[in-house]
Amino acid sequence: MLPLHTEGIIIMKKLVLLSTGVGLVPRLVDIVKKLDPEIQICNLVDDTIVSSIAKNGNVVPTSIFARMCDYCRIAEDIGADAMLLTCSSISEAIDVARPLVNIPLFKIDEPMMEEAVRIADRKIGVAASLRTTLNPSCRQLEKKIWEAGKKITVVEGLCNGAFEAFSAGDVATHDTIVRETVVSLLESCDLVVLAQASMATAVSSLPPEQRQRVLSSPELGIRRVVSFLQDAGALA
Fold this sequence. Notes:
Low-confidence stretches: 1-10
Mean pLDDT: 91
């Protein structure tokens, strides 16, 4: 996408990435830039959200919904053409915030969920390393199944100990736990979706016949919002 020109002024499309941790931000920015280097990226990061949900019995407290709405308003205030939420734990907050702002709000895992429902016939496994992410991911998937009018069973797969290992810097243990959970789910499911973008590299070493039955969110989600921004630029 070429930047827009208005009387000598270059106008670039601005995308806000809203994240709940800094770890994945460089990778997400890299994907956006590879798809379209002309998009201007602004990052909003709040790394207290996931722990707040966990302390509230894995239920998103009202205060977090309010905070998310504030972040969406901030994205609008700084002139964003779109905002992408990069965390599945609070994806439902986007539905609450949409009526409050005049910019498009995207969920990074929504295209992945839709693709899974399109492909599957019987069962879809959901792998997550946190209960705070697993529950809303399953709810979103079930909503997509209902909207598609299909009868598909959602099978939960909590990667016990993976998050703790990742937080301690033990990526090898994290990846092992994730792979074991995914392989177990694949034994009975048509395919598996990874509820967290950080899990994607863990399955890269699986055999091709298994790896092709695993979906992850980052590129699918980013492709959708980049495509929207490019179409918006073409129409401007």
